[in-house]
Write a structure and sequence with these properties.
By secondary structure, the chain is of the alpha/beta class. Helices cover 39% and strands 18% of the residues. The strands form two sheets. The protein has a six-stranded mixed beta sheet with strand order 4-3-5-6-11-10, sandwiched between helices. Helix 2 runs parallel beside helix 13 and helix 3 runs parallel beside helix 17. 50% of the residues are buried.
């Protein structure tokens, strides 16, 4: 509890808010590119405590939310096969595909199992040699090392019945897409501390220089987020654009060299579709050619699936920061956590889920 209390101290929070209020002289639009930070902001009302004119734009920082619809449908097709044990983290079970979700596949008899570590799926493959075991490997750079380790471990153990359905996406190309968009309003970024814990900070420096935009790496507790916001605003007010680390207790400039080495061995960069956003070049990882035998898409031949999003769901605009969740007509009416139209309403890191859970049911100021 020590650290939770330390980084949620209301006295320090008020001091930071006062510093921010004394700093700001004009409107600014900042984006957090992390679903965990979004939930911290909404749960603690940080966006409502900031000075008038300082807007927090919620970016595509929820890995569950941006997992492409076609990948969800591939997962559903694989999980429904009688010879398959399909393993996933729990937050993927209610994510809607075109007409189904993993929870419903499980209710109809599919062997869908919630695991708490990717390595649990390897152990399940060891214990069930007569079954094909598939792990749904999604996420940003944060989860990639553990997912990569499943392939190395399965290879070491000689497990021919294990494979990985990969849908990894990368943060820096998403920032590039946001800054290249003709609708962009973002003037400064909070970067996700857990991503930089793995990958370091070097990939963000070219973005700062190219777009002359401040990027501050920060954590997930209320004081972390407030300090990150303060540092971005100080730079903007002073006309500076620099890469700054406000999370040094976890993030170093070089990241985690061993984790990066494992990822570089198992994965290779590829173009990726982002749900609700579209294709972003070089924005994801797939299994490298030498590990293609562990690729569930190829093993189960589910590469040709074509999908269409719900016409009532505006989650793509939410993920791009173009609207707040409550500005979607379906929010809280047709789209609820029990009956989600889009992934941001069901994911534990989704902006729509945050607004619904913390009772932000009125239209937010644009």
């Amino acid at each position: 509890m020590k650290y939770l209390d330390e980084f949620a101290d209301p006295v320090v929070a008020r001091r930071l808010l006062n510093d921010i209020a004394a700093t700001v002289t004009r409107p600014w639009a900042l984006m957090e590119v992390c679903g965990g930070q979004t939930h911290t902001i909404i749960r603690n009302g940080i966006d409502q405590l900031l000075p008038d004119g300082v807007e927090m734009i919620h970016g595509p920082g929820c890995p569950v939310c941006v997992t492409p619809l076609e990948t969800i449908d591939r997962a559903l097709a694989i999980a429904a096969r009688p010879e398959v044990i399909f393993c996933s983290f729990g937050d993927m079970l209610r994510v809607p595909g075109s007409s189904d979700d993993l929870f419903r596949v499980k209710s109809r008899g599919g062997d869908v199992r919630v695991v708490y570590s990717p390595l649990d799926a390897v152990r399940i493959a060891q214990a069930n040699p007569g079954k094909q075991v598939v792990f749904f490997g999604i996420g940003f750079e944060t989860t990639a090392p553990a997912n990569a380790m499943t392939v190395l471990l399965a290879d070491r153990l000689g497990l021919a019945n294990f494979s990985l359905l990969v849908s990894h996406v990368l943060v820096p190309p998403a920032i590039t897409a946001i800054m290249d968009s003709p609708t962009r309003r973002v003037q400064g970024f909070l970067a996700a501390g857990h991503v930089c814990t793995v990958m370091g900070m070097s990939e963000y420096q070219p973005l700062v220089e190219r777009y002359q935009v401040p990027i501050v790496v920060t954590g997930f507790e209320p004081l972390d987020v407030l300090e990150g916001i303060r540092r971005v605003l100080v730079q903007l007010e002073q006309g500076r654009a620099e890469l700054d680390n406000a999370y040094p207790r976890a993030v170093s400039r070089e990241g985690n060299p061993e984790a990066r080495k494992v990822v570089a061995d198992v994965f290779t960069v590829t173009d990726r579709n982002w749900r609700g956003i579209g294709a972003i070049p070089n924005s994801g990882w797939r299994l490298a050619d030498r590990w293609a035998g562990y690729d569930a898409e190829q093993r189960f031949d589910v590469t040709g699936i074509v999908t269409a999003e719900s016409e009532h769901c505006r989650s793509g605009e939410v993920l791009q920061g173009l609207i707040k969740p409550v500005q979607c007509e379906a929010f809280g009416v047709e789209c609820t956590p029990r009956n989600p139209l889009g992934a941001p309403m069901v994911s534990s890191e989704g902006a729509c889920a945050a607004y619904y859970q913390f009772r932000r049911l009125q239209a937010a100021a644009s």
